[in-house]
Amino acid sequence: MEFKKEIEQAIQEMGFVDFTEIQKMTIPLLLEGRDVIGHSHTGTGKTAAFGIPILESINFDSDQIQALIICPTRELAVQIKDEMGRMAKYIANCRMVAVFGGDPIINQIKDLKKKPQIVIGTPGRTIDHLERKLIKLDNLKYMVLDEADEMLKMGFQEDIEKIFTNTPANRQTLMFSATMPRTILALAKTYMHDAETIRVIGDESTNSDIIQYYYKVKKENKTEAIYRLINIYRPKLSLIFCNTKVQVDELTQELISRGVNCDKIHGDLPQTTRLDVLKKFHVGIIDVMIATDVAARGLDIKAVEAVFNYDVPEKADYYVHRIGRTGRIGHVGYSFTLVSRGELKQIEEIERITKTKIKKRSVPTYDKVLDVKNEKFIQKLQSLVETENFDKEYEILNKIIQEKLTEDQIIVALLKIIHRNEQDSLNQSDINEEFETKKPGSFGSGNSTRFHINIGKNDGLTVSDLLDVITSKVRVERRDIQDIAILTEFSFFNVPNAVGSMVFESLKSARLKGKRVQITIAKYAKNDRFKGSN
Known about the structure:
CATH class of the largest domain: Alpha Beta
Strand order of the largest sheet: 3-4-2-5-6-1-7
Number of domains: 4
CATH topology of the largest domain: Rossmann fold
Shape: globular
Distance between the termini: 41 Å
Helix content: 40-55%
CATH architecture of the largest domain: 3-Layer(aba) Sandwich
Largest sheet: 7 strands, parallel
Number of helices: 19
């Protein structure tokens, strides 16, 4: 495939040697003017698949918005803007803006007044700017939905449909989705024209290039297990996923105290902090990033060699998206999942759904870790001898020799001091556990609990209102609140079983839209996910 010389130069500098399968199949269709449905996981090169045709086709002498890219999270919006910015490095007059919640709207208003040709945004903030008349889509040529299934799970169907109604009928539409539920197909049928479906996804839900292990350990020994595995495998870049923000905070502090070069990202951190941590991880300033599932979707983090699941994720698709951060495009990656008593059932469910066997392994002993660390220590000594000046150290050594200590005695004594300082703070016991599957508890069925509340559209309730009230009272990610249905007089939503009782207790005495909330556990009614949302 040949493109404008400006694009060719930029993508060569980005290291494009060959196009991925999704790029080979998507780019020609978009350049032909076709609508496309892309069934593909994250990490297959989707941004270039739509980014290159957009940059190839739109008019950069115009001051009209010609491409709109909608995605579920602010992090993904920023990532897409950055990657497309690199592709457009040599294109004169190219202007693009990312709009998303959590960032001062005044900054985005200022950027939109510079007349961008490309806008990347999350659904809610895009609508805010549409209503302010700062985003006008009369001349839109391309409409892209990235991670479409995730946006629908988060309850953004109404917002997406509202955006579509503001676009011209002759636009081109591209929709990427990792799964193809009926809601996605219905959306495509309504808003796309004779769309070509391309499928670049394996028969199994997990990448065969990812070596997957799980370890049975007590919850209180999980940090020690992570520490040992990091030292044994020594991956270049690692992601550690926890189910809660509190656990991310605690684990980060514990690993930093052990000398692990790590940082964290979750929803309670300021946007600027999160983006800074992501940047440091991308360029290798930090070796380990600890995160909630906010980082599991959409982020194309290259060169991740290992993913650690500190907690077993509540849902199989979360597991797939977590470990999908590694094993990218032909590279072998590792996935390590720590399983405490009560979590084994979730591993069995993940194996069943993903049709993958996760191998059980034993956490390495402390002695094994020490052997590896000693080897690393010797390599460090060799490097220091070759590169450093030791004049001051020789002065100290000469004084010690005057005390009639031999060189051997000095060296082994120093090694003893180093090892003793380490051993005092480490758990040296065998931390492997043996237990069988525990039957699930009574709160909710499957992996989630569905609730019914007595407040709906007539009360002015929106998806954002519901997400705000739940996350303000319970430590749960917005993306974990799924299958939201805002009906005329009442609403439904799902939360993971792990937080089901907390959500119930918190909301049963709450007030929402001026009414006292009445909350009950509901059965999941077939096809009610977006009932009443038109």
